[in-house]
């Protein structure tokens, strides 16, 4: 209070906000000039601006008669820039540096806190600034002088000879076709420095008219710095509460946030997460966790969150599977994206993942072979789908990772009914797309759906397996004793050894388990991972039925032959990619869906007349093993068989060969003198390089 009494208010000034020049008023900061030069020494000649970039160029005349001006230095600069001749393109037509160009740069990125003030008759009128530009001298004339110097040096060295000119008339042109640009490459190109410089250069200059300080037009424009109306409607922005006014005067600093180290794009702290809207919080959590009970979701959102609002938001980004929420496929695979494994578009991936989710609404167990046979997607994509929401179990399949949430189902029957209707619509779409059979649509065990799914602990499973082994061992022992007694009774005099009973052992794959369980609550109705109806065309325990082997071999041979007739040289990786595309075009139930291993594919390639070319790639190559295996058609029955064999022999000795070496080798082996165009044609026709 004492300080306030010592500092009394002397005068109250009314403040008005002028809007006439809003988003049009700029503040120019000129460079400091020597004290001997006044503003009258410099006259504005021209001005131009790029509005989007807020870039200004001013051309100002220099008083060459000023005693501080060095005339000899000005003449030397003009001579270096323009040379001895003067024309319209000359920078200094008077053969004297009589003008200077100034370019602008932004002094501050945020100018919302700055304004131009005019005080008149006890009133303070404020106009917000749209930009603050600092003008600095431009030295582009020095670049022009360097260019003139290089031209003079080139002229002094003398012109080229007539022979050189004749050789320059014929030039070899290499034509290259650009690859299709990916979305990531396009974003990198747009954010590059060269692209930004090109965009800035493409913006056209807007020429301005300069009016002096005492010009009548300047006097007229200065009147816009005053508020045109003194009513409350014109100055409503100045009517603020004390706290709001203080916030406007001292806004929170954002520099500290800019100086913080950038975290990875996929890392978000819980503190940052809770600053987002509720819908965004739920979307980010579901996208990262993928499968979550409703109780866990509420605990992550913090206390005080309305469960009704959470239910409303979670249904937009997730679907209900066995009482738990699983993120929707279109959230994980947005539009215009593709698979990182096979390049399949997002629409196909969403359909395949929806099929897996729908299967888990029918049963707790899913077999990967069945999913791959229906969706026709590559194993890596199918494995990603299953890993999102399930866990692999040996000799069982893939089990849904969370237990059945019975509490949520009992508390929210309306949500469960609505989700069931959504799944009925998804099922109808899947039936049309995949032509699903009855065994796909019928649940494996009706008892498992009507009641709570039976969960068996690991110890119980071990005890069940031991009991099953003892039972089977007892049966085998009885059969063995019975068989032994029959053999003795049939031929008592003969001394024969009872043959050992051999049981074939199949390797168990954790990555592709087979369903052999007989337990009532866990059985998914499949035999060794396959439907009984498909047993005639699908492999059982890794072996094809006898009638299918010939058909599969014929189909595979036809594919390999037609492929190598189109492309004479292929790596194993490229051949597998083409084979997967071929499988995607076949109808469901085709014989090739029985499972073709890499060895079968390679053996068929060798059987069709192809040879493996052992190209000596460098040891430090980053190529995969499938990319290092190169196969080529040795004899195609055309005129280029001999050329092709010579080329393949060359590449079997070195993975990188010069064109002249190939040309010489072809000429020696084939007895023909081939020119460059003929060598290119041989390379294109023979090896498709």
Automatic annotation (TrEMBL):
One of its GO terms (biological process) is tRNA transcription by RNA polymerase III. Residues 146-155 have a biased composition (Basic and acidic residues). One of its GO terms (cellular component) is RNA polymerase III complex. Pfam families: RPC5, RPC5_C. Residues 146-169 are annotated as: Disordered. Residues 444-688 form the DNA-directed RNA polymerase III subunit RPC5 C-terminal domain. It comes from the Eukaryota. This is RPC5 polymerase. It comes from Poecile atricapillus. The gene is Polr3e.
């Amino acid at each position: 209070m004492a300080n306030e009494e010592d500092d009394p208010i002397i005068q109250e000034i009314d403040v008005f906000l002028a809007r006439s020049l809003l988003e049009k008023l700029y503040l120019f900061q000129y460079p400091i000039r020597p004290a001997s030069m006044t503003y009258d020494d410099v006259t504005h000649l021209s001005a131009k601006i790029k509005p989007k970039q807020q870039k200004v160029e001013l051309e100002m005349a220099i008083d060459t008669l000023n005693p501080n001006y060095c005339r000899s230095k000005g003449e030397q600069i003009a001579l270096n820039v323009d040379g001895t001749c003067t024309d319209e393109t000359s920078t200094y037509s008077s053969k004297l540096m009589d003008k200077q160009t100034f370019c602008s740069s932004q002094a501050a990125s945020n100018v919302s806190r700055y304004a131009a003030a005019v005080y008149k008759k006890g009133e303070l009128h404020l106009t917000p600034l749209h930009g603050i530009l600092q003008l600095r001298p431009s030295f582009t004339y020095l670049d022009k002088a360097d260019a003139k110097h290089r031209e003079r040096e080139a002229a002094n060295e003398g012109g080229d000879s007539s022979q050189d000119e004749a050789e320059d008339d014929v030039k070899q042109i290499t034509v290259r076709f650009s690859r299709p640009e990916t979305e990531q490459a396009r974003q990198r190109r747009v954010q590059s420095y060269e692209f930004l410089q090109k965009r800035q250069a493409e913006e056209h200059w807007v020429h301005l008219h300069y009016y002096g300080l005492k010009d009548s037009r300047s006097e007229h424009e200065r009147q816009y710095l005053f508020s045109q109306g003194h009513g409350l409607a014109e100055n409503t922005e100045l009517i603020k509460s004390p706290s709001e006014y203080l916030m406007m005067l001292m806004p929170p600093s954002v520099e500290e946030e800019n100086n913080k180290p950038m975290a990875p794009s996929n890392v978000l702290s819980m503190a940052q997460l809770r600053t987002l809207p509720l819908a965004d919080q739920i979307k980010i959590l579901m996208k990262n966790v993928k499968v979550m009970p409703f109780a866990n979701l509420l605990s992550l959102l913090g206390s005080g969150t309305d469960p009704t609002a959470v239910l409303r938001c979670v249904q937009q980004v997730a679907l209900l599977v066995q009482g738990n929420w699983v993120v929707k496929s279109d959230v994980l695979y947005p539009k215009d994206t593709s698979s990182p494994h096979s390049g399949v578009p997002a629409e196909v991936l969403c359909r395949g993942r929806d099929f897996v989710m729908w299967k888990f609404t029918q049963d707790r167990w899913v077999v990967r072979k069945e999913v791959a046979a229906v969706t026709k997607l590559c194993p890596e994509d199918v494995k990603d789908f299953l890993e999102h929401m399930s866990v692999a179990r040996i000799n069982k399949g893939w089990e849904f990772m969370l237990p059945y949430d019975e509490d949520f189902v009992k508390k929210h029957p309306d949500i469960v009914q609505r989700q069931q209707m959504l799944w009925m619509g998804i099922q109808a779409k899947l039936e049309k797309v995949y032509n699903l059979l009855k065994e796909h649509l019928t649940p494996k065990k009706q008892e498992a759906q009507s009641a709570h799914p039976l969960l068996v602990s690991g110890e119980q499973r071990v005890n069940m397996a031991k009991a099953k082994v003892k039972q089977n061992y007892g049966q085998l022992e009885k059969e063995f004793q019975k068989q032994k007694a029959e053999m003795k009774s049939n031929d008592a005099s003969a001394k024969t050894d009872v043959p050992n009973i051999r049981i074939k052992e199949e390797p168990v794959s954790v990555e592709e388990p087979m369903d052999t369980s007989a337990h009532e609550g866990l059985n998914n109705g499949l035999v060794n991972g396959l439907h009984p109806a498909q047993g005639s065309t699908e492999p059982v325990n890794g072996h094809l039925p006898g009638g299918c082997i010939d058909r599969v071999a014929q189909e595979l041979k036809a594919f390999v032959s037609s492929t190598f007739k189109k492309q004479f040289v292929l790596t194993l990786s490229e051949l597998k990619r083409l084979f997967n595309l071929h499988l995607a075009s076949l109808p469901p139930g085709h014989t090739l869906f029985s499972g073709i291993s890499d060895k079968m594919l390679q053996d068929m390639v060798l059987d069709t007349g192809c040879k493996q070319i052992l190209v000596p790639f460098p040891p430090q190559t980053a190529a995969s093993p499938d990319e290092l295996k190169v196969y080529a058609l040795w004899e195609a029955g055309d005129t280029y068989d001999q050329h092709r064999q010579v080329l393949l022999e060359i590449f079997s000795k070195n993975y990188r060969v010069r064109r002249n070496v190939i040309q010489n080798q072809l000429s020696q082996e084939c007895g023909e003198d081939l020119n460059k165009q003929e060598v290119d044609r041989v390379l294109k026709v023979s090896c498709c390089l």
